[in-house]
Amino acid sequence: MKEDFNKLYNKMLSQYEGGLSNTSNKKFDEIKFFQIDDGWQKSVGVWEVDEKKFPKGLQVITQRCVELGKSPGLWLAPYIVEEKSSPMIDHPDWPLS
To answer: Which of 28, 84, 90, 96 has most Cβ atoms within 10 angstroms of its Cβ?
Structure first.
């Protein structure tokens, strides 16, 4: 399963204006899934795109993945929330002990 996933970290990904640009690598042809890893969101627990890192949103990237025949994926950790995030501040009763 490892060979099916390619994690491209957001710092690198956000440098590409048009999303995925270097697809000439032979290994890239073998990849079925393209996962956008941790860091795309405003904070852990606030599952909204960080517009500073992705001013055009994630749609450009996911569309490019589909154009290249890859299934786009998105890293999530639904059971984790940062203490200073808005869900913790606005709803302190939500987290489980």
So the answer is: 28
